[in-house]
Amino acid sequence: MKFDTPATTNPIDQLKVVGRPIDRVEGALKTTGTARYAYERHDVAPNHAYGYVVGSAIAKGKIVSIDTSKAQRAPGVLAVVTAQNAGKLGKGDYNTAKLLGGPDIQHYHQAVAIVVAETFEQARAAAQLIKVDYARTGGAFDLASEKDKAIKPKDGDPDSVKGDFASAFAASAVKLDATYTTPDQSHAMMEPHATIAAWEGEKLTLWTANQMVDWSRGDVAKTLGVPKDNVRLVSPYIGGGFGGKLFVRADAVLAALGARAAGRPVAVALQRPLIMNNTTHRPATIQRIRIGASKDGKIDAIAHESWSGDLPGGGPETAVQQTRLLYAGANRMTATRLAVLDLPEGNAMRAPGEAAGLLALEIAVDEMAEKLGIDPVEFRILNDTQVDPEHPERPFSQRRFVECLRTGAQRFGWDKRVARPGSARDGRWLKGMGVAAAFRNNLVQKSAARVRLERNGRITVETDMTDIGTGSYTIIAQTAAEMLGVPVDRVDVRLGDSSFPVSAGSGGQWGGNSSTAGVYAASMKLREAIARKVGVDPSKASFENGEVVADGKRTSLAKAAADGELVGEDAMEYGDLAKRFQQSTFGAHFVEVRVDAATGEIRIERMLAVCAAGRILNPKTARSQVIGAMTMGAGAALMEELVVDKRLGFFVNHDLAGYEVPVHADIPHQDVVFLDETDPASSPMKAKGVGELGICGVGAAVANAVYNATGVRVRDYPVTLDKIIDKLPPLA
Ligand code: MOS
Question: Which ligand 1 atom minimizes the distance to the CA of 245?
């Protein structure tokens, strides 16, 4: 099915099942521990052995020699695989050849060996017996010192120019020119990257934790040099991804190599202390923002430049994206620059681009509002735009940013904010409120599904879509139930298997809308098949109460399938609506903090997000996405930072003891409001993404609240107490 004109009324609009806050359909499996995650698939590979990954002890250089003889003789060891005996690995689309390093080493904790043994403990003990001699060479590890060598990346956003920024900025009555930094961050998901690999002759099955089954199936095939048809990926439950599991990583490739060498299925979970340097991370940025406005607060000139680094051949953090679309202004420019760094690979993490970009932009906007003496909510409203500011002929499909701000301000009690920073007190606590915009583009991706009417009248949906904790099972069940007129408990959803039709996968907040649109397309096919089977005109048939109804004739679905199941399979594909309309999601974050006037301890008191993200398919799972993202944004604001050892080139705090993320005690009551909207340009579902929108801007709202509380402006994340303690207003 092709979606190339805005949606009109369709069966989803009935909202009998879609749009309801139903519980997760797989919730009981998860809470009872019976949903099996990748590393727990003893049921499918009961005789599997265990792999332990050895990471490089240097960031850059060469392995001079590697002696595995002692490890090979250690108790229980079945195989040791290194670059010397692995055979040549193909490059893959996502640097998969480098998932096993040697003799050249590209980054710290790059895998250099896997030890396979009968037990995990034996594999771990044997790994200590591998002797590696390295020749270390120097590398570039410090973004700030490499910044001036950064170049325009060949992939990624081009520089953008509209009007004459330099002249307009020079002539502006009120100006800001400030530089902000965001640190490297780790996805820090609960479930480590994990895979069980099993070969049957030339055929490989990977039970794994992966967001993008079809991408990864192709990449495994390219890496190992086997036909794609010989690879099956199974990834039905994923304990968090956040972009860290978009790609095949060392667990999958090394499990496959280890299993081949050992002649046994092999289970590998990347050891937690290895993950942060071995896998991908959100790269650090340096961002310079200039804003010029007239005295009455209209932006005339806006410029955003961002610098980040990556391994040779890598890509930039696209932190300027939102600045091209968020605020009006006739004269504008953005630029992205990329430096070569020999740190671990940078790549996508929840809302790549906007998450880091809004951390900077939304402090800059707060600073500008203060310079102008305008309330920061009003300043944003004053500079709203209903069209793409670079291409004014191109409207947004929906843009209710102003309503998000106004609704949020009203519900949060923004009128009680004391504008003068550092002047609201409650005993020893300094109090403050902050606001920031949320913005994230809405992407749509082709997505296929197969929907079956079983002989017993139940509906089964099959698609290789993944559920990374987001609620995919549930919204897909709701979609099929709505389309076929059955209650949600009559629908079985099977996900995450590469033998199912290829879906959009989970990434870029496109999964919810795109995968359900694929189920919509397949359900339409099934409706036709059912109508034809019972001898009615498909265009006149409706589906309700477990029956197909046409011309006053009612037939139960079970009866329609009595002599054989009926199947509908299709993909939703997209025309040029995303070109004709700028499709984005919007929100406003409001945060209240208190800061201890003596110690600088920062506590978040309240958080509110108001989101405009098209039809909300399930308000309960969508809310969970947003409060999770707000929590992650609180982490970005106050604690998350991979600390770079700039001499040796690695992330020092590479486990969950040293890399701090928010815990329950850090997070107060969170409110989420969804504006009631539908976006007919996005898909027949009229939904958009929300899973990444929720993190966008949160951190800046926290930083702005800290400023309002203390009068200390921190432009370098995270906002930790050492950055404010010397500058706090005197104790009352
Ligand atoms: Mo997302 S960072 O594309 O999983």
Answer: 4
Tokens 């710290």 locate to: 108
| 8 Å CB contact between 152 and 159 | yes
CB 337 within 8 A of CB 139: no
Q: Which atom of ligand 1 has the smallest separation from the CA of 507?
A: 3
Q: Is the CB of 352 under 6 A from ligand 1?
A: yes
Alpha helices in 104-236 (DSSP H): 120-127, 143-146, 165-171, 213-224
Quote the percentage of the chain above a pLDDT of 90: 98
How far does residue 692's CA lie from ligand 1's centre (Å)?
A: 8
The residues pairing with 426 across neighbouring beta strands, listed in sequence order, are 429
* Distance from Cα 350 to the centre of ligand 1, integer Å: 5
All residues at 6 or more sequence positions from 15 whose CB lies less than 8 Å from its CB, including other chains = 482
* Domains of the chain, earliest start first: 2-35+445-577 (3.30.365.10), 353-442+583-727 (3.30.365.10)
Distance CA 266, CA 256 (A): 7
Kindly report the protein residue whose alpha carbon is nearest to atom 4 of ligand 1.
243
pLDDT cut 70: percent of the chain above it: 100
CA of 192 to the centre of ligand 1 (A): 16
In this structure, is the dihedral angle defined by the CA atoms of residues 281, 160, 302 and 682, taken in order, positive or negative? negative
For ligand 1, whether the C-beta of 55 sits within 6 Å is no
Q: How far is residue 290's CA from residue 304's CA, in Å, rounded to a whole number?
A: 7
Q: How confident is the model at residue 21 (pLDDT cuts 50, 70, 90)?
A: very high
Enter the DSSP assignment of 320: T
DSSP 3-state helix, strand, coil percentages of the chain (rounded to 5)? Answer: 30, 30, 40
Is 315 a pocket residue for ligand 1 (Cβ < 6 Å)? no
| Alpha carbons 483 and 475: distance in angstroms, whole number | 12
Q: In this structure, are strands 160-162 and 266-269 parallel, antiparallel, or unpaired?
A: unpaired
Catalytically annotated residues:
692
Residue 209 has pLDDT above 90, yes or no: yes
Hey, is 42 helix, strand or coil?
helix
Q: What is the pLDDT of residues 98-131, one digit of tens each?
A: 999 999 999 999 999 999 999 999 999 999 999 9
The 3-state DSSP class for residue 296 equals coil
Sign of the alpha-carbon dihedral angle for 703, 706, 707, 713: negative
Give the count of alpha carbons within 13 A of 523, CB side only: 28
Name the amino acid, one letter, at 703.
Answer: A
Distance separating alpha carbons of residues 249 and 244, to the nearest angstrom? 9
Per-residue pLDDT tens over the stretch 426-483 = 999 999 999 999 999 999 999 999 999 999 999 999 999 999 999 999 999 999 999 9
At residue 331, the pLDDT reads 98
348 Cβ below 6 A of ligand 1:
yes
* Whether the predicted model's global pTM rises above the 0.70 cut: yes
Strands (E), 316-445: 331-340, 387-388, 391-395, 425-426, 429-441
How far CA 14 is from CA of 217, 491, 530, 547, 670, in Å, comes to 37, 18, 20, 16, 30
Check: CB of residue 678 under 8 Å from CB of residue 332: no
Ligand 1 mean position to 352 CA, how many Å? 7
Contacts by 534-539 with C-beta closer than 8 Å and gap 24+? Answer: 534/559, 534/560
What pLDDT, on the 0 to 100 scale, is given for residue 158? 82
pLDDT at residue 156, rounded to an integer: 66
